[in-house]
Write a sequence for this structure.
């Protein structure tokens, strides 16, 4: 029989539990304004590019061979300057004048062929022979480390280097533009003063090897004040980025609640980094990147022992891939975006359930797409940067009867249990990101009737409904919702839901998670007939390397965006928020505009019978178009860009434009420009600015040219146009003596039995 005191205690507990449940509303009311909040972000702009990371060493250099689909999955993720951290085990300099690039090439070469083809190469540490027994660089070794770093630049960017009579040169044509100088020096035995000396010594030698490269500095593990202040006071070498790493814990035993409360500290440290650089003119506009980010920094030292909590055993923290992660990462994104950070890197791409975007329980193959992959995918695709978005003013009222601009209060923990960010794209579409990190209400116990603490570790979270007041935004014609939570199917990822847009909308997350709501008035539309050869205007099929022009609606920005280079030799495959996707592979972009875009068909379609084409603009994707693939579909460029009339032809003697007023003499040579000529020898590289050796039409593919019906006697060259984008072909040919002179002599070029369009002419004297 229960005592009166136990009955009273039980009743008290029940009443307290009911009161807590009633006080903790499951609905948060969010009002989205129509004006940018210029007090946050980069002058009111969200400029937070998403990326991913690898650590290159012997223990994972075979990653791509064990994950044959990983390259495609990473390209689809759309990482920005994928980070490759090269630690001592992967450093190719093994001793004085002794180089071995085997591990480096095994891993880095496939990475360079994916994503934006422009990774950040972090020289994470020094070779073992330049370090002490604790793997810390010796101060007397800095000059040798600098020379090694300069040779790495030469290896990738300037045709290689020669050491001890042996020449070393990268097997990949892609140069490396971004370079990180050392990893977490503040916890790896390098004082702030030593790092200033190291940086000021290494960077000038690397820049001397290739003046076009850019540098990521410090990449700190700890608080910035003790390290960044001496750095900004003493650095004299160029700085393009300063970087920081953020993890919420190094102990799997930490509770969910404590991990969420660390996130405002991340934002505060980013703001401090900007404040420290602001007084220095050379650093005042330098962006802050977060080049490592995940829930738990602990790892297995290789013997089952925790690296952070030795001698305790290591315990895998599955919060890195669970619904907890969806809530945690989206909250990190929102708060770092508000703080003005300009890149957020996942650590790392292929690993286990603690770290990986693709992963497994063991950290080895077979790998599968995890929830973390899809969280980062939608952050990257629906909030792309560049071009970035305006951060709109939002006001939220929720659990604590507190009104909070943009959903949080910095420096004082997290008074709410949800956060909402609204961002407007340049096309007027709005993306609303909702994070639910609400904890399951704590239940008082007989031992502690007043307990409000929550001891969940990878818990389920509590449900929250976001009641969105969107009336200030005006009207929209389409709404799409993506939810990332415990119900998300894996590995396939979430299924976007089409909703009816309204001024008042509700989104419910049943526990930890994130949701994206996209509101727009136009979606990219591309009819099959709108896919044309950029030179001839022909449609119906595509050829490898063909420059195509796509005609449709809402395909890109209202103002035309022209070709951009991600480095001096590489054309970007993302332009103003536009991707042109062939079988999911982003194509090199020539220009982007709302009614039409131009891109280069990837050479990877060679040998296929068909390819599927889509255009993605600011996260919205057109319906797929299936196109046949042909070996060649030659089209001649014309001076009027209409596919007929005078050709875009240069008189080879002085490289002047061939016109009726400037005809070419018979027997002289002209340079004809065209596209759609197909595969080359050696194989052309997507998006590369062509340098020697120049890819040419294969010897077994016949090339003929006729002028006025007369065959040309000598084709001096048929291949990639030097110093221009891959896919543009130059044919240098002698004008036959037997041609009848005139201002409009018909011109036809035939590649592999397929002729260029009729109606193109040149002027012959």
């Amino acid at each position: 029989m229960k005592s009166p005191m136990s009955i009273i205690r039980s009743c008290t507990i029940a009443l307290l539990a009911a009161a807590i449940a009633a006080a903790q509303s499951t609905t948060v009311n969010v009002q989205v304004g129509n004006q940018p909040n210029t007090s946050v972000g980069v002058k009111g702009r969200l400029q937070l590019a998403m990326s991913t990371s690898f650590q290159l060493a012997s223990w994972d250099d075979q990653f791509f061979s064990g994950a044959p689909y990983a390259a495609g999955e990473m390209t689809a993720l759309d990482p920005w300057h994928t980070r490759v951290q090269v630690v001592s085990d992967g450093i190719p300099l093994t001793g004085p004048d002794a180089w071995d690039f085997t591990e480096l090439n095994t891993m880095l070469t496939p990475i360079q062929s994916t994503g934006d083809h422009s990774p950040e190469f972090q020289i994470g540490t020094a070779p073992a022979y330049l370090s002490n027994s604790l793997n810390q660089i010796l101060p007397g070794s800095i000059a040798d480390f600098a020379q090694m770093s300069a040779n790495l630049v030469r290896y990738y960017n300037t045709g290689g280097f020669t050491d001890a009579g042996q020449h070393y040169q990268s097997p990949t044509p892609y140069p490396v533009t971004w370079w990180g100088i050392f990893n977490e020096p503040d916890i790896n035995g390098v004082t702030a003063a030593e790092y200033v000396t190291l940086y000021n010594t290494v960077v000038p030698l690397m820049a001397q090897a290739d003046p076009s490269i850019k540098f990521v500095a410090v990449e700190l593990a700890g608080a910035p004040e003790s390290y960044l202040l001496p750095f900004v006071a003493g650095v004299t070498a160029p700085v393009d980025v300063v970087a920081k790493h953020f993890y919420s814990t190094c102990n799997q035993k930490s509770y969910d609640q404590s991990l969420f409360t660390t996130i405002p500290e991340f934002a505060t440290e980013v703001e401090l980094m900007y404040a420290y650089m602001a007084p220095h003119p050379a650093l005042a506009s330098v962006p802050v990147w977060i080049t490592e980010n995940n829930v738990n920094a602990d790892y297995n030292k290789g013997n089952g022992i925790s690296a952070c909590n030795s001698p305790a055993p290591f315990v895998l923290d599955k919060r890195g891939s669970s619904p907890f992660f969806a809530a945690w990462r989206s909250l990190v994104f929102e708060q770092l975006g508000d703080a003005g950070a300009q890149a957020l890197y996942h650590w790392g791409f292929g690993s286990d359930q603690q770290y990986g975007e693709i992963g497994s329980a063991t950290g080895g193959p077979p790998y599968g797409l995890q929830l973390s992959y899809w969280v980062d995918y939608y952050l990257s695709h629906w909030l792309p940067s560049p071009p970035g978005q305006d951060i709109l003013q939002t006001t939220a009222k929720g659990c604590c009867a507190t009104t909070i601009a943009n959903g949080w209060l910095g420096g004082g923990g997290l008074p709410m249990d949800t956060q909402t960010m609204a961002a407007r794209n340049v096309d007027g579409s709005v993306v609303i990101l909702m994070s639910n990190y609400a904890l399951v209400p704590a239940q008082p116990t007989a031992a502690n009737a007043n307990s409000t603490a929550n001891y969940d570790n990878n818990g389920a979270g509590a449900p929250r409904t976001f009641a969105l007041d969107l009336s200030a935004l005006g009207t929209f014609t389409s709404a799409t919702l993506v939810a990332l939570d415990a119900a998300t199917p894996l590995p396939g990822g979430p299924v976007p839901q089409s909703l009816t847009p309204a001024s008042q909308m509700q989104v419910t997350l049943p526990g930890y998670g994130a949701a994206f709501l996209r509101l727009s008035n136009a979606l990219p539309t591309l009819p099959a007939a709108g896919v044309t050869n950029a030179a001839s205007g022909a449609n119906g099929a595509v050829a490898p390397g063909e420059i195509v022009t796509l005609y449709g609606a809402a395909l890109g920005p209202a103002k035309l965006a022209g070709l951009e280079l991600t480095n001096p030799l590489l054309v970007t495959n993302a332009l103003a928020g536009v991707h042109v996707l062939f079988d999911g592979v982003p194509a090199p972009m020539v220009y982007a505009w709302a009614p039409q875009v131009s891109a280069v068909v990837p050479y990877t379609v060679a040998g296929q019978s068909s390819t599927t084409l889509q255009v993605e603009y600011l996260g919205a994707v057109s319906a797929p178009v299936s196109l046949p693939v042909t070996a060649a579909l030659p089209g001649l460029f014309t001076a009027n860009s209409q596919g007929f009339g005078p050709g875009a032809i240069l008189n080879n003697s002085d490289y002047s434009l061939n016109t009726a007023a400037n005809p070419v003499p018979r027997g002289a040579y002209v340079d004809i420009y065209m596209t759609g000529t197909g595969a080359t020898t050696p194989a052309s590289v997507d998006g590369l600015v062509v340098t020697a050796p120049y890819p040419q039409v294969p010897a077994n593919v016949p090339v003929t040219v006729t002028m006025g019906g007369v065959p040309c006697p000598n084709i001096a060259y048929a291949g990639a146009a030097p110093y221009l984008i891959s896919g543009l072909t130059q044919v240098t040919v002698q004008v036959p003596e037997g041609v009848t002179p005139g201002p409009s002599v018909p011109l036809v070029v035939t590649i592999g039995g397929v002729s260029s369009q009729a109606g193109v002419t040149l002027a012959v004297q």
